[in-house]
Amino acid sequence: MEERRELVVIGGGPGGDVAALRAARLGLGVTLIDERENLGGTCLNIGCIPSKALLDLSEHYHLAKNGFEKMGIRTGGVEADLGAMMRWKQEVVKRSTQGVSYLFKKAGIEVVRGRGRLAGPGLVELVGASPAKLEAKHVLLAPGSIPTAVPVLPTDGRQILTSTEALALEAVPASMLVIGGGVIGLELGSVWARLGTKVTVVEMLDSLLPTLDRELGSALQRSLKKLGITFHLSTTITGLAERKDSGVVLEANGAQGEQVRLEAELVLVAVGRRPNTADLGLAETGVLTDPAGRIVIDEHWQTTVPGIYAVGDAVAGPMLAHKASEEGVAVAETIAGKVGHVNYTTLPSVVYTWPEVASVGQSEEQLAASGRAYRKGVFPFLASGRARASGDLEGFAKVLSDEQSDEILGVHLLGARCADLIAEAVVAMEYRASAEDLGRIVHAHPTYSEVLKEASLAAAGMPLHLA
């Protein structure tokens, strides 16, 4: 049986669900196919939202246990109830996914549970107990991504974990090896370190957060060491040496080529994610992929087959939920005859450790490699009155601007509430503001945002509260 739709979306994550909502509000008939019981994809169910819940909870616990007393707040014995924390996390997830379902219902979007794959141009096949074929004028592929595997270290969900299992542990482990010094590894590593786990991070490159400005990774490493996290940089895992009832032993090549043995109760493999593009019927339909498995698209997010589009983690670019959402909106508007647009130069990146890390635009390393002359302004949180009042003294704001025009080229933040502060930098860069423009804007006092103002003034050659 074949039914015709205007738009069929495969994947209910932040790319697919936002595309469906925008398309429906533009008057298109939309059907969304997703395998999960709840909409929201990896982000809402086992990624962005549950991890942020645990990050906030663990930071609250850590502050109550280690920070309140010096501020004059005596709480007595502080204990972490992991079961209650996990229930809170699940309630946050439940409310978030229910919110998406409510919006879909109000927008009149049809949701089909199951696995969808291309059966040809303009034809989507439902695979499963009740197979069917849906004819569509337009198809959007938004399948998301899955954890990247390490061949020498296959995960088992018990001792060697992916991020999914690391978000749902039933007890606080005594020790954990985190393989990967990127966003996922550092966020989840910091969660368990705050709750009492001895965490060791192993990174094959020579710095943390290798895709961001190098100063951010170095500063965050110094901060996380204060949590008791240890680091092995320039270290490559070569295999699983031994399994024990109490944990596992891994073998690695160290920074100087030496053989290293690392032991822990649990191992978290967090070396990144890869496009979830297997078994989508791409090759059979003529949709090309690149060597990394990403779907090839043009400037309008259309694949090599007319009428079939792709967004999010399945295509080139950073694997960010907000990037997928913006692409989903752009595709919906393109299909509806409008002009879809995403400014990739102003996509912010955030790491939700504490202190937080946020970045937008070019790093110093990228500017130096390109040969572009730039100016740099840096202002420390230590010099912020608001930061002193709250005790959040770690971090800095760094603004990079063109040497001639003073246009802001990049902003890099580490400190309290940087995940929110970066939005101001994004707006400024979207409108091609100069560092002086941002520095001259009136900022409320005392606020964390003043560090961005002061760094901007410094970059413009007009330092104010700097010696």
CATH topology label of the largest domain: FAD/NAD(P)-binding domain
Structural class, by secondary structure, is: alpha/beta
> For the terminal residues, how far apart are their CA atoms?
75 Å
Number of strands: 22
- The proportion of residues in beta strands is 25-35%
Global mean pLDDT: 96
List the uncertain runs: none
In a nutshell, what does this entry contain?
The protein is α/β, with parallel strands linked by helices and 467 residues long. The chain has helices spanning 16-25, 41-46, 48-66, 82-107, 163-166, 183-194, 214-225, 282-285, 321-335, 364-370, 385-390, 418-430, 435-440, 450-459; strands at residues 2-10, 30-34, 110-113, 115-120, 123-127, 132-141, 145-147, 160-161, 175-179, 198-202, 230-232, 236-244, 247-253, 259-264, 266-269, 273-275, 308-310, 349-351, 356-361, 374-380, 396-402, 408-415. Helix 3 runs antiparallel to helix 4 and helix 3 packs parallel to helix 6.
Summarize the SSE layout with pairings.
Layout: E1 2-10, H1 16-25, E2 30-34, H2 41-46, H3 48-66, H4 82-107, E3 110-113, E4 115-120, E5 123-127, E6 132-141, E7 145-147, E8 160-161, H5 163-166, E9 175-179, H6 183-194, E10 198-202, H7 214-225, E11 230-232, E12 236-244, E13 247-253, E14 259-264, E15 266-269, E16 273-275, H8 282-285, E17 308-310, H9 321-335, E18 349-351, E19 356-361, H10 364-370, E20 374-380, H11 385-390, E21 396-402, E22 408-415, H12 418-430, H13 435-440, H14 450-459
Parallel strand pairs: 1-2, 1-6, 2-3, 6-17, 8-15, 9-10, 9-15, 10-11
Antiparallel strand pairs: 4-5, 5-6, 7-16, 12-13, 13-14, 18-19, 19-22, 20-21, 21-22
Helix pairs in contact: 1-4, 1-9, 3-4, 3-6
